[in-house]
Amino acid sequence: MKNEIKIVICGKEYKLKTAESPNYVFALARALEGKINEVSSNGASPYSAAIMVALTILDDLNKANQRLDNIRNQAKEYVSEAGKVRMERDTAVKEMEILKAKVAQLENIVKMQRAKDNA
Fold first, then answer.
1. pTM
2. Would you kindly state where each structural domain of the chain is located, as residue ranges?
């Protein structure tokens, strides 16, 4: 369900239709206006300040997406490595079972040989 919300940024009213909660959108509007006012306090017009804020936010978004992509790639590498290690472990367990069976077989041969020698 879409909410119709009125927000005011730098004295201009905007009507939005969004699925987001009104409180969330109001908080975004306040944060945006705060950033615009901060840049405007250095002499920039509200329009120029809005452009600078937009560029800063896009830069932050791009950097966050790059970090997210790096984390995803790292997670994929970890999953792949874990799969390889799991396969190596399974192979080692199979080899160990084979060796245990051979040891048991050799122990039986030694027991039979000793019994034969003692008889």
1. 0.66
2. 3-86
Q: pLDDT of 40-88, one tens digit each?
A: 998 999 999 999 999 999 999 999 999 999 999 999 999 999 999 999 9
The Cα–Cα gap between 98 and 96 comes to 5
> How many residues does the structure list for the chain?
119
Q: Which token pair is 119? A: 């008889």
Query: Within a 10 A sphere around the Cβ of 33, how many other Cβ atoms?
Result: 19
- Number of Cβ within 10 Å of residue 52's Cβ equals 17
Residue 67 sits at the vertex; the CA angle it makes with 66 and 69, to the nearest 5 degrees, is: 65
19 contacts 1 by C-beta, under 8 angstroms: yes
DSSP state of 83: H
